[in-house]
Amino acid sequence: MPPQPAPTPARRAVTQLDHRLETATGHDIDTLSAYRDRGVLDDPHAQLVDRHRTLASAQIGVTFYLKLLNRLTSGEFPVDGALFVRIDRTVDQLEEAAEVRDAAAQKLLAALEPIEAAAAVSTPDEGRLSTDDRAALLAIAGGAKLHEHLLTGRLSVTASSGTRIPYPQVQQLERAGLIVRDTNHPVHAGQPVSLTDAGRAALLDARRTSATPVPKSLARPSALPSTPAKRR
After folding, report:
1. Sign of the C-alpha dihedral, residues 12, 17, 23, 27?
2. pLDDT tens, residue order, the chain (232 aa)
3. Which H or E element spans position 200?
4. DSSP bridge partners of 181
5. What is the pTM of this model?
6. How many C-beta atoms surround the C-beta of residue 57 within 10 A?
């Protein structure tokens, strides 16, 4: 019997708000980050990703000092005055890192809650993107141009990634208001094609139907750890 592949481990959450962010947007953190880097996201979602990155960075600081404190109290070092000084200093640093983390979490919540509210009242849309249209919009988001062959007059669209998009599909997306051409450039020289705000929104909504429903209660998470009182 051939060996069975090992099960893929569940992705570990980077922050305590990952699940809420992914539920509200219908995309995992890695996908949202990739969309942010490619300029696909609208301003509210771009700000959401930026604040998540800040929170993730702050969480790394908390984890670092927590591990250092665990090491200092593991019995690895002699129990003397120098150890007590190091422990005190590390606890203070851990508290400061937790304060930074909690402040970043509150800023992320401020950006997340309006998106959660909008997702909670949204209704299924029968005109959602097909797989081909979603792939085309993703390719266009990275840069694309419409060209006209000088001899044949045939139109073609090529993305910067090398992906070719059939012109009839481009016309369909343009009629739907999802993409726009820069007509200030002649077609034979290449007309830049880009996503409209509606195109970005449609791309974000493409997977929302498969996402876990957003809970009705949008209360702040009780899992947010409170920062202990500052040590004297």
Report:
1. negative
2. 444 444 444 455 678 888 888 888 878 888 889 888 888 888 899 999 999 999 999 999 999 999 999 999 999 999 999 999 999 999 999 999 999 999 999 999 999 988 888 766 554 444 567 788 888 888 888 888 888 766 666 787 888 888 888 877 888 888 888 888 887 887 777 889 988 888 888 877 755 544 444 433 333 443 444 444 455 4
3. helix 197-205
4. 193
5. 0.59
6. 14
